[in-house]
Write a structure and sequence with these properties.
- The protein has an 8-stranded mixed sheet, with no helix packed on it.
- It is globular and about 55 Å long.
- The chain is mainly beta.
- It contains 1 helix and 22 strands.
- Strand 6 and strand 7 form a beta hairpin.
Length: about 375
């Protein structure tokens, strides 16, 4: 790190080593009946709602909401989906989910595929800003693992059929990589679980100051460890045309874990809760190794110091009998939690073909009390 720059609050081996029995953190086992909301034409994974500036879900008069999710055709090897990912628009109604097609028009985004982000509705409800990851570069012969943070604006058009996003414009790079602070993803190789990160922009407006933040998944520059995941950040006024200023990582798992994915913040009972997802196979195998799950920290202010929830960071784990059943948890301001069905219905040592669910997992719900977090019955 450059002189005077910090690596952020450390999520350490001591924290993970203190994780006890998983029963109190384990999500319910997912069964075949829980896949009823699948969209047959697409495999879906990382998802997020279109939110208002204060973080609440934007809703139409009938209560329906717009969501975005990464989607791709079905492949025999589910990992192939990452090379074909596009952001798809979905309508959530009382009757279920409806696909509205790709969010952005073909050829608009600058990457060879689109990875996770967040979306914020304008105050008047007439349009939105999408923050997203451009992976690779448009037209490349083979997918590469370059990652850039972009944003673009669109107009929301409502008609008798369904809402649509039109007039896509103002495409620009939100935050450029600063290699003094964050490692270039292209320098890390391309193996699953080993690639380096500069992705997953999550927008948050600080209710105390009015300042906007973008949190993202990064990799620590100058690390001596192959397991150098961090949560990075940029700060700004947060208007559609306002610039962002990149800042040092806010949380570091250097020496412990390679990927702190899809970081996002909610404000609850006067405290800030920063959550991320990670998988057991991206921990340093020298240990300790935590379960695939949702992790988080809490602070009195966004600048830190951050304190691991439950003393360890672990908030939700997959059940031991299905350790890969769900992933990519997102905590909403009302403390409901969404994720997607990954490899479901199997034990840790199964020899069957991987069963990729490719749809929304059943919603969960949290109870937060200061530095404690627990599952509660979903509403």
């Amino acid at each position: 790190m450059p002189s005077g720059q910090t690596a952020g609050t450390l999520w350490s081996a001591d924290h993970v080593a203190a994780i006890g029995p998983l029963a109190s953190f384990a999500a319910p086992l997912i069964g075949a009946a829980d896949l009823a909301d699948a969209l047959p034409e697409l495999g879906l994974w990382d998802a997020w709602p279109v939110q208002n500036d204060d973080g609440s879900i934007h809703r139409f008069a009938d209560g329906a909401s717009l969501w975005m999710a990464l989607g791709a055709p079905w492949f025999e090897n589910p990992d192939d989906r990452h090379a074909h990912a596009r952001i798809h628009l979905l309508l959530r109604q009382a009757s279920g989910w409806r696909s509205l097609g790709p969010a952005m028009p073909e050829g608009f985004a600058p990457g060879s595929r689109e990875w996770s982000g967040s979306a914020i509705m304008d105050a008047d409800g007439g349009g939105l800003t999408l923050y997203f990851t451009a992976a690779g570069t448009r037209g490349e012969a083979q997918p590469t693992f370059g990652q850039r943070l972009f944003q673009a604006r669109a107009r929301l058009a409502e008609n008798a059929d369904a809402p649509r996003l039109t007039d896509w414009r103002d495409l620009r790079e939100s935050v450029a990589l600063d290699e003094r602070l964050y490692m270039d993803p292209l320098s890390g190789g391309g193996g699953i679980g080993t690639i380096k990160a500069f992705r997953d922009p999550g927008f948050f407006r600080d209710p105390a100051t009015g300042e906007a933040w973008l949190f993202f998944t990064g990799s620590r520059a100058g690390s001596a460890s192959a397991f150098n995941g961090v949560i990075g950040a940029a700060r700004g006024a947060g208007g559609p045309d306002d610039p962002w200023r990149i800042v040092p990582p806010v949380i570091s798992a250097d020496g412990l874990n390679n990927e702190l994915e899809r970081p996002h913040v909610i404000h609850h009972a006067g405290l800030y809760y920063l959550f991320w997802s990670t998988q057991s196979h991206v921990f340093d195998p020298a240990g300790p190794v935590g379960p695939t799950g949702l992790y988080g920290m809490v602070s009195d202010r966004l600048e830190g110091e951050w304190r691991p929830l439950n003393g360890t960071g672990l908030v939700i784990a997959n059940p031991p009998e299905a350790p890969r059943q769900a992933y990519s948890w997102l905590v909403l301001p009302d403390l409901r939690v969404t994720s997607f069905v990954d490899d479901w219905g199997h034990g840790a040592d199964h020899a069957d073909t991987r069963r990729f669910g490719g749809t929304f997992a059943p919603f969960l719900a949290l109870a937060l009390d200061g530095e404690r977090a627990r599952l509660r019955a979903a509403p």
